[in-house]
Amino acid sequence: MYDREINDYWSFKTADTKEYTHCYHTYPAMMIPQVARKLLTDYAPEDGNLALVFDPYVGSGTTLVECSLKGIRSAGTDLNPLARFMSKVKTTHYDIKDIADAIGHLDTALMLYNRDLVENTDFNRISNHTFWYTEDRLYRLSYLHQIILELKPEIQDFFLLCLSETIREVSFTRNGEFKRYKMSAKQIEKFNPDVFVTFARKTRRNITGLESFNTVGNSQLASIHNFNTAEKIPSEILPDGSVDMIVTSPPYGDSHTTVAYGQFSRWANEWFDFENAKSLDRLLMGGKISKESRFETNALKNELETIKTLDSKRHFEVISFLNDYWDSIRNVAKVVRPGGRVCYVVGNRRVKNIQINLDYFTAEMFEKCGFSHLTTIVREIPNKRMPSKNSPTNKAGKKESTMNNEYIVILSKNA
């Protein structure tokens, strides 16, 4: 239907995917920097004009960081406040001297720690906090938060992002899962992380990334926004025809049944009182169930009909996601200029053991909006941080294999 080319080069099996600020924080299904980097180099518009890149599902900020490294202005949006926060910190050139001075202050404060110094001991904003944490870890996390907020305002976010990862890592959540699953009692017996040591490790790692990032210019080229591309793209931010290139990795399905962005992010979103911390999955693509499709597709017609005969509930979940995805594509297409390029890195998940060829659907929907399909590159995913199996029904033992390949769909907007 749409030609695919398999290219082993794009797997980047031996590449360092944690260069620069890409090392700062884990995130589900992160696009590796080498993919974004090569797309920006090899698939930029033919006329050579590349002044503005847009990422409509900014996630961990990979595209924005890569644009900053190349001196290209970029814009990104995401409904997840943790994603926006990560992207902001990763694209900021913090002063290393300020960071070093702050570490001295933090080290002194941590040496003086005792529970009586902790000012905020109300943990009710954290769902089931006694289920996920020991009391001692809650106090230590709160103290860390407290002393970070005593730092100069312009550097607080750098350390808060280190705290964000610490918050999740010292909880009783199972490693290798994005959904909120608790460790077994046997695992908990052996689990005794030092909150302050964990935070210090994250900080040292991120300083190394910042130092290398700071060697590549000091321009603040990225802008990060909070709008839903499935609803509209504000013209005051991105007028129609203003974008030269899209480089993005959209969700592969709704957050509830596919990759659990909301559950993964809930640790930090609740701790920092970010908005919609508990309801994020319902706001993301496919979060609200639709009973009718708003699109027409030949690419997925047979697959959708088969899923409907097998499980009508799952059918409507897929339709709901594709409705929002189609609405988003229509809006994204408008802001791309004639001759502009679109690069979507997608995954083809399985529903009721039926493969949903999202790469075909993506190409088909963009063609309806005046684009021409150039190629689809198939790459193996050797390092992507996704569970090898997921549980779309959330029932014990009911698991399906997740995707082992990504599909990079590349299109050009017709003149």
* Biggest sheet character: 8 strands, mixed
Number of helices: 14
- The rough form would be described as globular
Beta-sheet strand percentage?
Answer: 5-15%
Termini separation comes to 23 Å
**Could you report the average pLDDT, rounded to the nearest whole number?**
93
Based on DSSP secondary structure assignment, what is the total number of beta strands?
12
Order of helices and strands: EHEHEHHHHHHHEEHHHHEEEHEEEE
- What is the helix fraction of residues, given as a range? 40-55%
Oligomer state equals: single chain
Structural class: alpha/beta
Radius of gyration computed on alpha carbons: 22 Å
Q: Unreliable segments (pLDDT under 50, ≥5 consecutive)? A: 386-402
* Spatial order of the strands forming the largest sheet: 1-9-12-6-5-2-3-4
Give a verbal description of the structure.
The protein is α/β, with parallel strands linked by helices and 415 residues long. Helix content is 40%, strand content 14%. It has 14 helices and 12 strands. The strands form 3 sheets. An 8-stranded mixed sheet has the order 1-9-12-6-5-2-3-4, sandwiched between helices. The chain has a two-stranded antiparallel ribbon with strand order 7-8. Helix 2 links the parallel strand 2 (52-55) and strand 3. The longest helix is centred in the last third of the chain and has 24 residues, at 312-335. The radius of gyration is 22 Å and the shape is globular. The chain starts with a strand and ends with a strand. Residues 386-402 have low confidence and may be disordered.
